[in-house]
Amino acid sequence: QRSHVTYFGAGPAPLPTPVLEKAAEVLLNYKDKGIGLCEISHRSPEANDILARTKQALATLLDIPDDYDILFLQSGGSGEFSATVYNLVSIWVEKKRAKIAEEVGDNTDEVLKRLRQVVDEELKLDYLVTGSWSLKASQEASRLIGAKHVNIAADARKANHGKFGKIPSEDQWSLTPRAAGGPALVYFCDNETVDGVEFPSFPRSLEGDDAPLVCADMSSNFISRKVDVSKYAVIFGGAQKNIGNTGIAIVIIRKSLLPPHSTPASPDLLRHLNLSVGPIVLDYPTIAKNNSLYNTLPIFDVWVAGEVMSGLVDSFGAKRIGGQEEVSDEKARLIYEAIERCPDVYRVVPDKSVRSRMNICFRVNGGDADKEKAFLAGAEKKGLLGLKGHRSVGGIRASNYNAVSLNGVKLLVAYLDEFAKSA
Ligand code: PMP
Predict the structure, then answer these.
(1) Where is each Aminotransferase class V domain found (predicted)?
(2) Per the CB 3.0–4.6 Å rule, which of 26, 140, 215, 400 could disulfide with 37?
């Protein structure tokens, strides 16, 4: 029974029970229309209201400045690995083309010749690889535009015995120099779901007047702490952890990257330069122009996200996401303290300086397979579910998303103490 269970799954993840109860109702009959929410048109006034309300709740929670737009796509988090590359490379190319055209005038052949050279020599995308999701994003960038254009500005495994678990200090990063025009984007994953590594704060070397365009994957720590949105070009996340159910990704994008402020390169030009042309459903200008309704948006998924976020707005009032941050921090603190109380039995995987408040990764008895199995079996008996670590790294992972209650966390803490005594 649902009320007897605390679910610590990493995503899909728990949703607030009242939202699911309401969801069950609206699936059958939305606002007494006699049809359910999955049946109504994405172009209906109801759907438009849901979109507007969901955007408003997110903008309120995160204090999103007016010069940012919010987009909904069906891309999943992984689709945004590609979308960020397609869109920002396209903008970079068009900027360079315009500049060269200014210098050489109407001579198209000369413009193309110079542009090809500039792309060849200067196009760089910087990736901070701090865990398996940023690694995947960097690999997708290499697949799309070629490895020579992808600069791994930091690889956290290098100074950590080949494993993720630390973030190299910024003085060790090799970002593409701003003086040389800078990179087309700098990418990082704010919270690494598999490895339990979270950026403690926004990197200082990505700040400043001539800061590069920063893209951040916040799939697994979205709306769990305050974010200075103005520092980012693009923030994205799949909904299926803190926000809602699987099916949509949310993108917060600086409007200066959209028309009429920025122009994407033409598909012909990109093809000419041997750069790939992205699918239209990942094209930010197209999605923005159509208020995320270029094609059929799963409005039910947007509704769930809207309910979850409106719930947080109501709960935390003027504190907004700061209220959630306090709760998330407190729950994470309780779990880490319980783990650290028993150092003979448990060991937190990532370094203390970067450990995630959302995905708490630890080992039992040095990773002893039988002990970890016993830990999971005992947890399950107590209704503490979803604690198995990602298959690629093993161990235990307690995902402390927003819908995990403080009471559920206390039950986990009690179990951690109890298991350690018997171990
Ligand atoms: N980024 C992060 C941080 C994730 O945790 C995940 C999924 N767990 C993804 C991206 C990929 O998301 P999706 O499965 O929606 O493509």
Answers:
(1) 7-100, 168-412
(2) 26
- Kindly report whether the peptide bond that precedes residue 343 is cis, defined as omega within 30 degrees of 0: no
CA angle 299, 282, 307 (to 5 degrees): 25
Looking at the predicted structure, is the pLDDT value of residue 181 above 90?
no
Q: What residues form DSSP beta bridges with 187?
A: 127, 215
Give me ligand 1 centre to Cα 137, in Å.
10
ipTM above 0.95, yes or no: yes
Q: What is the pLDDT of residue 180?
A: 79
Q: Is the Cβ atom of 74 under 6 angstroms away from ligand 1?
A: no
Q: Does the reported pTM lie above 0.95?
A: yes
Asked whether 76 lines ligand 1 (CB < 6 A), one says yes
pLDDT mean over 14-32: 97
- From start to end of 6-98, where are the E strands? 6-7, 68-73
Q: Which tens digit of pLDDT belongs to each residue from 217-232?
A: 999 999 999 999 999 9
- Report the residue among 73, 74, 220 best suited for mutation to probe ligand 1: largest number of ligand atoms under 8 A from its CB: 220
- Going from the Cα of 238 to the center of ligand 1, the distance in angstroms, rounded, reads 6
Percent of the chain with pLDDT over 90: 97
CATH of 53-301, one of 3.30.470.10, 1.20.1250.20, 3.40.640.10, 3.30.70.1130: 3.40.640.10
Q: Is any ligand 1 atom within 6 A of the Cβ of residue 237?
A: no
Fold type of domain 320-422: Aspartate Aminotransferase, domain 1 (3.90.1150)
Choose one of 81, 129, 133, 243 to mutate for the ligand 1 pocket test, by most ligand atoms within 8 angstroms of C-beta: 133
C-beta neighbour count of 66 within 10 angstroms? 7
